[in-house]
Every structure is written in structure tokens, then in C-alpha cells.
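Hello,

Our lab assistant flagged a job as stuck in the queue for most of the afternoon. It eventually completed. Since we weren't sure the result was trustworthy after the delay, we are filing this so someone can double-check. Below is the sequence as submitted and the structure that was eventually returned. Let us know if re-running is recommended.
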Amino acid sequence: MDIGIRGEKTKLGNHKIALILDSFFLFIIEKKTFMTKVSNPLKTITCLLIAILLSSFGHNIEAQIKKVPSDFPTIAQAIAGAQSGDTIILSPGTYSEKGMTINKPLTISSEWILTGDEAKIESTVIDALGGKLFTINSDEVEVSGLKIINGDHTLDIHANVSVKYNLMINNLDAVSMESGGGGYVGYNLFENNGDEGIDLDINENGSDIIIEYNTIDDSNDDGIEIRLFTAPNQNIHYEIRNNIIIGSKRAAIQIISYDVYTGKVFNIHHNVFQNCMTGLGCME
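-- returned structure --
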């Protein structure tokens, strides 16, 4: 039996399979005294074993690593060829791509995710060519360990997504949470953004969000902009903590409100604001 673990095939010898099966047999045989009216115990045991093995190994068999450019020449082709749960790893280099849509759970990262070497982040560059890099419509997507430059609403997020340990330079709204957006944004550097570093346009279809340990430097508008929208009872929790926001031309954090109770809850604490026009702005 071949069990795929992060794309690497691990061969389990027959003796190991036998040990696994023997352990299940012992368990089931011990329990059979509590079973009554079993016409064919061996058939019952076999069916249970198959179900247990499929349940235990099915996820690992499917989830794999896809490498760019060794397995796929482009990021777009890797996304198209990947299965739900796969990890796409970019080798160091510069990739000039934009306009990709993600409709399934994936992780897209650099070799940093395997090694923890932060130099891999700096050397793995995606140039979004002035457009949207990823439109993300699926929950359980992670974008991490990448240097992403020159985008416009670069990460266009409509689901519960994780964005972490990235360098996002010279973008216009580097992270743009729209409609059903939410999730986690942490440990990123946002620098020289033409509008906001993080733009949160989450409405009643969205989910809770944590924004922490980011550095947002020299945004042309706000460091973080949050729009409340007019729908009542949105009931979304924003946790914004331990960020450093420097040199925003307007507010470090701007909240744009409307004359309606939205049910949104904000916990904003332990952030550092420096050389911004205002720290926390509230406007209609």
C-alpha cells in the first residue's frame, strides 16, 4: 500500500500492514462477545477493517505537494492541477502572473514552509503585473512565505483564509477582504501600498478575523480600513492586536460606519501607531 504524505510516497511493507491488521483484528475479536446474531463474523470484520483503513488513510493519500516549476511550469497550472488540500510550493525565482482564481482548499507558499528559512521568502517573488493575483473563493486556503509585488487588490478574498509571513510591497490594497471574507492575517510586512495595506470590506456573509503581528509601512491612505456596511446583525468579531503601523497618509486604522447597528464587535489593542495623520479614525 502506498500512503502519500505531503506528496512523498512512503512504502509500508507487508509485515507492517499485517501488524496493523492484526491489531484491528484483536480489537474486533475481543469486542465480538458483545455482538449477537452475527451470521458471518469474518465478513463483518473484513468490512470494518476496510472502512477503518479508508477513514485513516484517505486524506493522506490525496494531499500532496506540487512544485513550481518542477511539476508545473506556472502557478496557474499548478492551481488547476492541484487537488483539494494540496500544497503548492514555489522554488526561488520571480513569477509574473495574475488573474488566478482559487476555488478549493490549497496552501501556496515558498520553500520557507519546509525549511523555516526566511531567505526563501525574500527570494520567491510573485509580480502581479498591476492586477489581482488571487481571487479566493474557498475556505481553508493559505498564502504564506512569499514576496508579492505590484498588485491591485492583490489578494481578493471572499472566504475564510489565512495570509501569513509574506512580504507585500508596492501593492494597491494588498489584502482585500470582500463580502464573505475573514480568517487570519498575521506576521506580514506591508510596504509602500498605493491605498491600504489591509482593506476589510466584510459584510454579513463574512466571518471573524484576527489581524496580528503585521508591520504596515507607508500606506498612501489607511494602514487598515474597515467598512461596516448597512446590514444589521452581521455579528462579526474583529481582533486587531500587536501590529505596527507607520507613516499612513491618513489613519493607521480607519473605521467607516453607517447609521445602523451592525452587531460587529472590535477588540483593538496593543498596536503601535507612528507618523500617521491619525491613529484610530471613525468616519461616515
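-- support follow-up --
The delay was a queue issue, not a problem with the job. The result is valid. The longest strand covers residues 251-256. The helical segments are 14-31, 41-62, 75-81, 112-115, 119-122.
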